[in-house]
User: Fold this.
Amino acid sequence: MSDEIQQHVDKAYAYAKTFCDEGHVADYIPALAEVDPLKFGMAVALPNGDYCCAGDGDEAFSIQSVSKVFTLALALKCLDDTIWDAVGREPSGSSFNSIVQLETECGKPRNPLINAGAIATTDRLINGGSAEDVVAQILTFMQQRAADPTVYIDDRVATSEAGSGARNRSLAHFMSAFGNLKHPVETSLSAYFCQCALAMSCRQLARAGLFLAFGGKDPVSGERVISAEHCRQINAVMLACGHYDNSGEFAFRVGMPGKSGVGGGILTIAPGRGAIAVWSPGLNQAGTSFVGSIALEHFTRAIGWSIFE
Ligand code: GLU
Assistant:
């Protein structure tokens, strides 16, 4: 079975690579602007512990907003349904860092996968403790999920984003004004910037997402990570909201729950089958990897892993 999947990975990789000079690297975070735009990797993690990889699938990159899926999982695990007091679960139809809905909706972000929603989620996760403690908790969670202690937070990327994060500061202050942040703005933001600066390879990211394809249970270790109900909720939110104002298009073309990051990574979940991660830094207008989405579309069509098959 993994030989057949590897062939599909190789074909999708070869096809998508021809588009590698399209898309634009995120440059509003200076450290991301330095990344080679021609990088391209892909990895599929399977429930028997096997992997199918291609290209730069073992090179660490900045996972950015893909981290929001994992902080949502942690928030549901630690705080249960109370997290939905802080964030909604409707698609925003707006860009990742939009502020407009926050005013009319009284500081409650539409969902946990837009920037405002992720900042509010991380704020709740701090839960009266320190930003450092929650960052350590997130890092440990990611190392465990990836089954790899080498997963790390790239301090240079975190510092670069903190130094250019006026937009996220605006979102955080706005939510704070409505009473929807429980900690000082800089405390919540410092944890948020660190989670976005997690550095992982496609192989590690796909492995980390595997529990979401198996009802909240890690199929390799057998560990129950989150409840089946929370797993269903996360996949639903990923499908509807994982790509900001490009979520409908991604669902239409790829047909799997997924989450993009402006570092060029995308994690997608094929329930009951596996988890797929791609990385190519050139982005489309909504901040989703241009080549990555082409590779995923090609792969899922060929192998029949769309949830609508
Ligand atoms: N750290 C990025 C930001 O807050 C994340 C955005 C993304 O990856 O989509 O702008």
